[in-house]
Amino acid sequence: MTQGPQQKILCVIAKLLEEYELCPDGTRELEMLFYNLKQHCDLEYHQVENILKKLKQEGIIEDFEHLSDTI
To answer: What is the CA radius of gyration of the chain?
Structure first.
């Protein structure tokens, strides 16, 4: 089993989190996390949501459930 897709996702998430930390506008930046993960990693919505839930559980990002209606 190769690390290709998983490694790509981790790299994109790391880059997006760096961008997220640079801008205090959490809502707008969090929407971009969703869109960028969907676009660059070719993930379905529920996969992106699961990734962000995991990041929230680890305290890396804050609440994002309110975005589900707009995405």
So the answer is: 12
Q: How many domains does the chain divide into?
A: 1
Q: Can you give the residue range of the structural domain that contains 14?
A: 4-69
Q: Which residue has the tokens 């880059």?
A: 15
Specify the pTM: 0.45
- pLDDT values of the chain reduced to their tens digit, one per residue, 71 residues: 345 666 766 777 777 667 666 555 555 666 677 777 777 777 777 787 787 777 777 776 665 555 454 44
